[in-house]
TrEMBL record, chain A:
Origin superkingdom: Bacteria
Residue stretches making up the DUF4142 domain: 34-174
Protein name per the record: DUF4142 domain-containing protein
Signal sequence segment: 1-27
Keyword tags: Signal
Amino acid sequence: MKRFEKFTMKTAALFLGVFAFGSTVLAQGNPTLSDAEVASAAVTANQIDIDFAAIAREKSKDTQVLEFARTMANDHQAVIDQAVALTEKLSVTPKDNAVSQQLKADAEKTKEQLRAKSGKAFDKAYIDNEVAYHTSVIAAVKDLLIPETENAELKDLLMSVVPALEAHLEHAKMIQQKMSKK
Amino acid sequence: MSMHKVLFPCALLLLTGFSTLQERPASKTHRVEIVQMKFSPSSLSVRPGDTVLFVNLDMVTHDVTEASGKSWKSPPLAAKGSWKKVAKTSASYYCSFHPVMKGTITVK
Ligand SMILES: [Cu+2]
């Protein structure tokens, strides 16, 4: 539980929402998320970070923040492309579900908060959120999506996404530290 | 000019020329894979004139940028993309898209 201390309340809520959903269903002892639902949650989680990046590219004037946002948009799009290609190959249609919906609902609130800010305050809010969001997505992918996945190729894809998410998290923390020194 | 005065330097030149040729090993190509957000191997020892081939095995785009940012830089390497460089001097490098990814080439 110690890892939660670093979370903002909002992302803690996001992660807890996802996690609570997972454990509720697990507690029922039923098959939980289908692969179609895992695929939907994975695509949604990536799309959300592309949306955050789009707001940053619209609002920020900081080169470092803009470059980070461009990397986020490109990398998360590459993951979506891979996931879509795989679901097509496997004839799986991503299926909306409670995890995807929770992710979207939380993202809408975050986007609203980001849009309300500008200048340095925006840059800080965007990077802080990137740190929090990647932290919670890494946890959700590792602790919920990967264990829920049946298909080996989908599982491999999710596992190969984790190092990218971790590199993004470290990159965001690096920018966060530089900002705090300014 | 006596014969041996001409022959001696010639022979010397031939000998040194040959030995230089023989001592210099053929230049090699070393492969650095970019996989799971890491350069592998992240530190590489090469001889001057060796080629280093970088191959991106990840799904995301990477590059190879000399650490000062002023000396050399690969173009963006998309998935399955590769780029090679002849090593002349030692260098530290990183990925400009993911600055947490780092590596070194030692030329000796
Ligand atoms: Cu990279």
